[in-house]
């Protein structure tokens, strides 16, 4: 992916997850945007996309952040929204353990309140440890927490899996978090 593609991919993330109003775009209740409308409005703001470029960004994105509708007319972000949309995901049973990558500087606060969704719509969890290390590194010295997802599910707490494999839940209470020995 070229630098130009990366820049346009980041802008697509910004618009579809956080600020559609930045270019006067409206998403539907499930977070979908009309591709033609997006291209026109982004173009009016100096960001030049074509349908081919968008298809390439969707295909090549490292975290599969975006999805095209079956008819190919619309696009949405798979997860990570701060705006209030309903991904309409079905609750599914999670594996016994999922991982959350955070930074050591948040440890004290997380011990008190558990994991909160903060500015996003969900707490994000991963199936593998390596992903959690990468996610945590974005915030500082990474700290990987083990979330007892199976036990939470057994108590009726809902889990969802986004189309790119990221696991989502509303919150993780402190009693469901296992800390690494040094944490
Ligand atoms: C932390 C990326 C203090 C939480 C990734 C995290 C992910 C608390 C930060 C996706 C806390 C929020 C999401 C508490 C949670 N006290 N800190 N009680 N509860 N936190 O960016 O999970 O590249 O909103 O641990 O791959 O880091 O954008 O969430 O450190 O899937 O596609 O508050 O974003 O994907 O940070 O990342 P974020 P996240 P993209």
TrEMBL record:
Tell me the keywords, alphabetical order: NAD, Transferase
- Quick one: signal sequence residues? none
InterPro entries attached here? Ptrans_KptA/Tpt1, RNA_2'-PTrans_C, RNA_2'-PTrans_KptA, RNA_2'-PTrans_N
- One GO BP annotation here? tRNA splicing, via endonucleolytic cleavage and ligation
Entry EC number(s): 2.7.1.-
Q: Name one GO molecular function term.
A: NAD+ poly-ADP-ribosyltransferase activity
Q: What does this protein do?
A: Removes the 2'-phosphate from RNA via an intermediate in which the phosphate is ADP-ribosylated by NAD followed by a presumed transesterification to release the RNA and generate ADP-ribose 1''-2''-cyclic phosphate (APPR>P). May function as an ADP-ribosylase.
Family per record: Belongs to the KptA/TPT1 family.
Name the chain's protein: Probable RNA 2'-phosphotransferase
**Lineage of the species this protein comes from:** Bacteria, Pseudomonadati, Pseudomonadota, Gammaproteobacteria, Lysobacterales
Q: Which gene encodes it?
A: kptA
